[in-house]
Amino acid sequence: MKVQTEQLKFDTDEHILVCLSSSPSNARIIHTAAKMAKVLHARFTAIYVQTDTVINDEDQSRLSQNIQLAQRLGAEIVMTHGENVALQISEYVRLSDVTKIVIGQSSARRRGLFGRPTLTEKLISSAPDVDIHIIPDALNYTKSHRRRLFFGAEIPSLRDIAVTVLALAVCTAIGFLFDHLDFPDTNIVTVYILGVLMISVLTKGYLCSIAGSLLSVVLFGFFLTEPRLSFQTYAVGYPVTFAVMLASSVLTGTLASKLKDHARLSARSAFRMQVLFDTDRLLQKAKSNDDVLSVTCMQLSQLLDRSIVAYTKGENGMLSGRLYAEKKDTHAEKLLSDAERQTAEWVLQNGHRAGAATAQFGKSECLYLAIRAGGRVYGVIGIPMKPEKPDSFESSIVLSVVNECALAMDNAHNAAEKERAADLAKSEQLRADLLRSISHDLRTPLCSVSGNADTLLHNGNCLDEATKQQIYKDIYDDSEWLIGVVENLLYVTRLNDGRLKLELTDQLVDEVVNEAVSHLKKKSVGHKVTVRCDDLILARMDAQLIVQVIVNLIDNALKYTEQGSEICVSAEKQGRDAVIRVADNGNGIADDMKPHIFEMFYTGKNTVADSRRSFGIGLTLCKSIVELHGGTLTLTDNVPHGCIFTFTLPLSEVTLNE
């Protein structure tokens, strides 16, 4: 059922967008949108449009809670900015193929015939093809924040006041100069408008711009119109000039301030995208969960300019906390106290945020966020709330970075799970192949041994001596084959378990080769086996294992070549290696089989001369043993026909005195 649900979730074309705000009823709206998304198996997004407004601490806290609620209910959080909220929402709707919008009923009402339309009316007109679901606001909430233009404006700093006074003084001085040079009054008015623009650019907020506009009119009327040092004027048109000058100054100052605010918001948005891009780029280079956590915490520390605490989940619970900081902080050690750890453990167990600015463990120094993805919690990140809390912009970046961290850890976890599943499947396949090979290939020699023994036991008196000797020989050959198979299986088991230890000694290669050939003396009847080894080649090896390698290679040549074929075993020096070759002039190995010839349990399509299938572990074992010695095992063609197996061993550093 779960798989079907996920399939429907990705197959649907529905996309539900809920609008976030600081309204107390916004939580109910978010829940409603989440239920719709769940029922329709739709993509779920929550959008918040930042405007040039000032909201109080209570509304800011409520907005953060609503954003957290939307994220907890599975929404993708989108933060954008602009003065026209409806335009920003409709533009996102157009670009993201939103099919339904869920929004609360606006507390604002159209006043009179020429009143401004409400947000809902603007959305209906700008996005006519989208279903808009309006949830009534039962709490009748009224926003407490106002535009910055007057009451919500920031208090100017001493620097801003000084810049305003200096700019107006310079404009007045230039006005006196122009008046002395008999320039028209319009030129002086233009200078004051330019001064207001400079004030808007060089100061923060609206107050200095508005004050500069009013003072420029006052200064112009008091100092630069007749009669001087008086607000009376002889010219009839001067009042109109003052009014136009004031309107122009206010308009230009306001526009300049708005452009600055838009530039600031754009810069914030660009900074947020850059932080996320850098984080994503660094996370892609991370090779472990520790690297992922380190990248995330260092990015957050650089962003917030404070120490970051992190805890990871171990096999037996939460591990010790670690501090990450761009700068040295002598007071950061208190963030690792037992009380802070207790808060982090609660977050790790419950998967929800806790600590400062929350209902759970509100007296903690840090706000603890769970690194959570796919229902799994991989760790906890703690963000100190002192000396000041991160604002909504910084909080949105923090949430995005933590989500990136959780996604990276989840991807690493899934990759590890897939790798373990692949290893398990491979092990199961190897086990199945081994059992199938044992059940199939051991049956023939065991049946032969059992049948021949039964014949000797019950009918031995009726057999002539030559027949008995042949039966004895068959039993011996089958037993030798079984012993060779069992030895190879034991070697493979020890290799896989890591229990095969090399006992390295300096050995003469020709002696090792001759010993291996002697083991197959009886089996090689019918084949011509020759040995060509250079004298005094001393190599570092485990003699018993190398004998096993040469025996396996010669045994394969005996099995897969016809009677009368030639097999040559040779050894020579090449640089710092001893090179040993086993060559035959049989039919060779097909090209499509060569890439798989060293794979476990691969037997290919070749038929074995004695009608017994090979287990397909001999060459795998040989390759593993040679590589343990630091050498290589390769296969090449023997022109005009046949094949050559070549392996290398490191020469001994001991020199022989002739």
TrEMBL record:
Histidine kinase domain residues = 437-653
Q: What class of enzyme is it?
A: transferase
Keywords, ordered alphabetically:
ATP-binding, Kinase, Membrane, Nucleotide-binding, Phosphoprotein, Transferase, Transmembrane, Transmembrane helix, Two-component regulatory system
Under the heading CDD domains, the entry gives:
HATPase (cd00075), HisKA (cd00082), USP_KdpD-like (cd01987)
Kindly give the membrane topology term recorded for this protein: Multi-pass membrane protein
Q: Which reaction does it catalyse?
A: ATP + protein L-histidine = ADP + protein N-phospho-L-histidine
As for subcellular location, the record says: Membrane
EC numbers for this chain: 2.7.13.3
Stretches that traverse the bilayer: 157-178, 190-223, 235-256
The protein's matches in Gene3D superfamilies, at most eight in alphabetical order, are given as: 1.10.287.130, 3.30.450.40, Backbone structure of the membrane domain of e. Coli histidine kinase receptor kdpd, Histidine kinase-like ATPase, C-terminal domain, HUPs
Q: Which PANTHER family match?
A: SENSOR PROTEIN KDPD
For this entry, the protein name equals histidine kinase
Q: Which organism is it from?
A: Ruminococcoides intestinale
